[in-house]
């Protein structure tokens, strides 16, 4: 058993050391200026929106020029959006800028780093520093804090539940108290370790949760150390009136209830700082809470059975053996229900967190989860063996105490390893964590893991990124990575973009091949030296416009459907704006050869502009309006198609 525990610990430790750029926790969702944006006017601030609430204190946004000089004022503050941060800039001149950000999640304190670039003026976009969004490998102090917390919660809650509902007539209250004291000490130590691990950047919300957890640990220890504490008397009196006359059970009941409540409170703090909470899903939070409760009833219960019943009793007589058998049987029924619940809740959570089944051996998170599942299966096998083999013998009065002790000891050792695996699991970022992209799909082709990310979900100019991995390792140095775009609904021909390697294993291309609202096929082709091309197709829905009014809009004009969008997507005042229109006929095919004119109503006056059609470079049915510059405000652009009709597009121009 010890050897098994060592192997498991090494396996998990090895994963941590690999420290592969696991996906981030508080991930970049969007920013202003956007990643790779070309601006005509220098911005006065940078705003970034993340996938979970960031804590401004532990977060940082640096805006650097190509010489590495900082131009931000270092005044990172909430941006108004619950998940957003902003920093203001000194006046900057034309040139390329890199935004390097560090975000600390307000929920679990996990830190993520990333960077993107933008350019003011006509210069080249700077190459961002390598390895975007690399989450640092978890710190040993964090793992220890999590493992101690989880072990303490399971032991405290599980013991209290066991002595209250499974085997109330425990032989020796001192044994029960010892377990609760250890549980309380673990919880306090674990909470303090997690607070120490965060140090000065401890987000206030996380600090509060850990303080509540530590307090629950103190309550557990206090209740057990001193059952006749003055504090207990009023509670006891409330619970049963003449406590002392009701015998030992009534004496212990109130403090067991308090211990159970403290255990549940500590379990609640686990859920409230978990990924389920960070992701903001109530369903996920409920599953997590059920998972922690049932996990505790089972694992803590096994330890309580071992320590308070098996090790404390004797089975010299047939009656002893029968009594033991009855307790084991009662616990087995409880354990069966608890394992059913914990596996269901764990599996449902796992489905939510994993992208592919391959994640189980290709991501640190998945490996921690797989380790846990294997260990649970072993523990279950031992439990089933206990129940089936020794249960009937005990009830028949045959002595089996020694065998039961051996088996529950083995289970306890496995639980220790499971708790360590759970600590790693929750410290790593789940593969299904929302990423920076509007579209993020992973496929497995010829032994390669291909993750396609598209920055924006709307039509128009976009960034397409392919991450290529083999197992945990990025695949660098591909000879060619290309994307071929075709549309499902209409024949728009085929367009190709060739990607360049930005960081090892990450290939990126820019362009506007998916300019039309509808379903696009992106064929990703990866050519590696000395190998056959690897190719797969991703289906990328270019969605209806959402949110801001200046994204693409679908307008009906007479028999036509027109998709209108601008480049840049968020126009700035005084800067040139290209407005694109894709014209589709009633039969769904692009319409060419139309006269189009845009007229403007807005804060100031603006002369009408005629569209130019350029099928050769823009594709069939695509028209473009070159606008020299508009004053800030909301503009109503009326677009006329010949004499057949007009439609309105609303355009927001920022200052
Ligand atoms: C004795 C068995 C188990 C123990 C002691 C255990 C323990 C834990 C603990 C302590 C957490 C952290 C909860 C929190 O911080 O709120 C957790 C989370 C989780 N467990 Fe288990 N677990 C067990 C079995 C399983 C099984 C069988 C599965 C899968 C089938 C599973 C899947 C998960 C998942 C997906 C999470 C969420 C991790 C995250 O936050 O991203 N667990 N488990
Ligand atoms: Cu996290």
Sum up the structure in keywords.
655 residues; alpha+beta; Immunoglobulin-like; 4 domains; 26% strand; disordered N terminus; binds protoporphyrin IX containing FE; binds copper (II) ion
SS field, number of helical segments: 13
Helix content class: 40-55%
Number of strands: 26
Number of domains: 4
Strand content: 25-35%
Would you identify the regions where 5 or more consecutive residues have pLDDT less than 50?
A: 1-24, 227-247, 544-550
State the separation between the terminal residues, measured CA to CA: 68 Å
Give the oligomeric state of the chains in this entry, treating copies of one chain as homo and distinct chains as hetero: single chain
Please tell me the overall pLDDT: 83
């Amino acid at each position: 058993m010890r050897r098994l525990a060592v192997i498991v610990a090494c396996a998990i430790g090895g994963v941590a050391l690999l420290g592969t750029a696991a996906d981030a926790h508080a991930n970049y969702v969007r920013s202003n200026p956007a990643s790779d944006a070309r601006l005509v006017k220098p911005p006065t601030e940078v705003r970034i929106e993340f996938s979970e609430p960031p804590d401004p204190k532990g977060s940082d946004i640096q805006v650097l020029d190509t010489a590495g000089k900082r131009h931000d004022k270092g005044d990172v503050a909430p941006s108004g959006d619950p998940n957003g941060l902003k920093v203001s800039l000194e006046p900057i001149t034309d040139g390329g800028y890199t935004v390097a950000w560090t975000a600390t999640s307000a929920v679990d304190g996990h830190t993520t780093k990333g960077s993107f670039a933008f350019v003011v003026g006509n210069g080249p976009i700077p190459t961002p520093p390598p390895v975007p969004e690399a989450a640092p490998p978890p710190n040993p102090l964090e793992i220890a804090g999590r493992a101690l917390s989880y072990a303490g919660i399971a032991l405290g809650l599980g013991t209290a539940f066991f002595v209250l509902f499974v085997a109330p007539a425990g032989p020796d209250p001192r044994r029960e108290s010892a377990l609760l004291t250890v549980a309380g000490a673990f919880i306090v130590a674990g909470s303090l370790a997690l607070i120490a691990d965060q140090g000065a950047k401890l987000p206030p919300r996380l600090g509060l949760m850990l303080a509540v957890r530590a307090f629950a640990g103190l309550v557990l220890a206090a209740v057990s150390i001193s059952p006749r504490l003055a504090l207990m008397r009023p509670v006891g009196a409330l619970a049963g009136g003449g406590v002392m006359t009701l015998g030992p059970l009534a004496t212990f009941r109130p403090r067991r209830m308090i211990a159970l409540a403290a255990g549940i409170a500590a379990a609640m703090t686990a859920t409230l700082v978990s990924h389920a909470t960070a992701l903001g899903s109530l369903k996920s939070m409920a599953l997590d809470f059920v998972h922690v409760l049932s996990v505790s009833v089972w694992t803590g219960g096994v330890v309580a059975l071992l320590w308070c019943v098996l090790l404390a009793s004797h089975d010299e007589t047939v009656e002893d053996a029968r009594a033991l058998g009855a307790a084991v049987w009662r616990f087995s029924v409880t354990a069966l229900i608890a394992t059913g619940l914990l596996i269901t809740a764990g599996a449902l959570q796992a489905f939510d967190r994993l992208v592919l089944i391959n994640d189980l051996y290709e991501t640190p998170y998945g490996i921690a989860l797989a380790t846990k599942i294997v260990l649970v299966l072993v523990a279950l096998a031992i439990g089933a063996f206990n129940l089936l083999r020794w249960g009937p013998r005990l009830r028949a009065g045959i002595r089996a105490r020694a065998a039961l002790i051996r088996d529950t000891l083995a289970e306890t050792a496995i639980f220790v390893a499971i708790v360590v695996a759970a600590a790693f699991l929750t410290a790593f970022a789940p593969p299904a964590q929302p990423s920076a992209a509007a579209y993020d799909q992973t496929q497995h082709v010829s032994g390669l893991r291909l993750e396609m990310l598209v920055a924006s979900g709307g039509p128009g100019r976009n960034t397409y990124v392919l991450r290529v991995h083999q197992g945990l390792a990025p695949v660098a140095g591909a000879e060619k990575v290309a994307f071929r775009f075709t549309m499902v609904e209409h024949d728009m021909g085929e367009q190709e973009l060739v990607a360049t390697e930005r960081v090892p294993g990450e290939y990126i291309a820019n362009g506007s091949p998916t300019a039309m609202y509808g379903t696009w096929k992106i064929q990703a082709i990866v050519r590696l030296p000395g190998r056959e091309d690897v190719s797969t197709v991703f289906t990328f829905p270019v969605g209806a416009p959402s949110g801001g009014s200046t994204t693409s809009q679908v307008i009906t004009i007479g028999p036509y459907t027109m998709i209108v969008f601008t480049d840049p997507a968020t126009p700035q005042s005084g800067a040139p704006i290209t407005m694109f229109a894709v014209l589709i006929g009633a039969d769904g095919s692009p319409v060419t050869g139309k006269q189009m004119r845009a007229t403007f109503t807005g804060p100031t006056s603006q002369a009408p502009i005629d569209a130019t059609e350029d099928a050769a470079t823009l594709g069939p049915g695509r028209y473009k309006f070159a606008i020299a510059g508009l004053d800030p405000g909301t503009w109503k652009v009326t677009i006329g198609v010949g004499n057949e009709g007009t439609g309105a597009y609303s355009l927001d121009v920022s200052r």
